[in-house]
Structure formats: C-alpha cells, structure tokens
Amino acid sequence: MRIVDCHVHIRGEVDAAELLNQLDENGVDRVVVLSQAERVSLERTRERLLETAPLLDVARDRISGLAWVNPAIDGMAELAAEALDGMGYVGIKIIPDHWYAHEPRLEPFWERMDQLRASILFHTGILYGWEDASRFCRPVYLEALARYPNIRFAMAHVAWPWCEECLAVMGRMRAETHGEGRQWQSYIDLTPGTPPHIRKQAVANAISFCGPERIIFGTDCSLPNRMDAQKDMVRRDLALFDQLGLDDRQKQRIMAGTADEVFPARHEM
Q1: Domain of 142: which CATH number?
Q2: What pLDDT was estimated at residue 225?
Q3: N or C: more exposed end of the chain, with fewer CB within 10 A?
Q4: What are phi and psi of 194, to 5 degrees?
Q5: Which helix (H) or strand (E) holds 189?
C-alpha cells in the first residue's frame, strides 16, 4: 500500500539521505515536511523557507514541503507566493497566531492565496504552547475561507477537542458546492491530537460524515531524530481502519490518495 505522511515537522538540520532511509524503513513512500516556524519577522521567515528549500529538490517524488507562514506579517502574501512559485513548496502551513481568519487585515493574504489556488494546512484544535493561542484555532473560524473558493484547506488533528465542530465546518463547506462550479474546499488531517479514548469514534465520525476522499493521513513526527514513531502510527491507523470495516480502496485513499490530491508531489504538478 502506498503511504504518504502529510505532516512532519523540521526542527533542525536534516540529512536527505538519512530521511529517505527512514522512510524506507517505515514503509512510507512520500513525506510532506513543514518548514520551521517564524512568528514575527518576514525576513526570518524567508530564511527559514530557504533553509528547507534544498531538501525539496533531493527527491521530488518522495519529499515535498509546506511553507510555514504567518499571514498577519506585512508582506507575507508575496513571500508565500514566492515559496509556491519559486522555492518548490507545494502548499502552505498556518497556525492562527492570535488572529481570526475573518479579520479584514488578512483579506489581501487570502485573496492572493485564492489567485494562486493554494492548498493550506491549518493547525486546528488545542495548541500546546504559543501562549493562549488555542482559542484562535477553533475550526469554525475557517468558514471565512468560503469567500475564497480556489483555496483548498485541511484542518489538522481532527481539530481536537472540537472534533464535531470540525465536521460542522466540513458540512458548511460542502454546502457551498451547491453553487455553480464550486469545489469542496475542505479536508481533515488525521494527525494525532485526539487521545486514545476518543480517537476511534472521532475518526469513524469523520469518515462517515465526509467520506475517505476528504481524509488525509499524517503523523506529526519531527525531523531530524523523532521519526521512529512513524511506522507505529501507520500500523495503528491501518488497524483502526480494519476495525471500522474500510476496504482496501478506502484505506488507500486516506493513506495516500488524498494527500497526493491536495499536496501533490512536484513531478506531478
């Protein structure tokens, strides 16, 4: 079975050959890495993006990247566009850092992303760190993106503890497809966050409500030295899908097909 991990952090210098060996050992075909975060500086964000960009050229079919940006920083729209058009990134990573998506000051950023038909991975749900930022990461605030129909976005961590709110947003965005020519913009990233005692039900609810076509597998592992858990997470979720009665086609869609659609490898673009 083809496996794509859509959510792996970079927290230091990464050796590309070692990463590819780790993916082979873990049975993972492709990984989508997130550049390191920068919260306040446009120039430091550029530096972070340029640090990761060379890794994305090593094996385009196996290593892809999301550019981690803060839309509230002046000038970020054009830097994000540069990351997508000139640095080799296949999408954008965003944490709502003490702002809400519907704020007027962010409209130019969303308009630019809409022009670029960008794919965005949002952190949603509880956020361990970044002061009191969790309240800004509720999925309901992302319904503002309905005004930008060319943006595709995924809500990470099933938005725990707001898992049902996440599904409500999925339904809201699905309702927009009743308009002529509108695509369903939203997806759910299964990356952990949901604790074991509710994960099975949360995942089952997401698949039942949205269908496997809207679900993306991810691990939230970190590079360079915290990838050992990736193999166990693959096994765990595949076992969970067996318990839920998913067939091979449905499992394949979640484990790779959706990520290949939303964040396609550069050789497929």
Answers
A1: 3.20.20.140
A2: 78
A3: C
A4: -65, 120
A5: strand 186-189
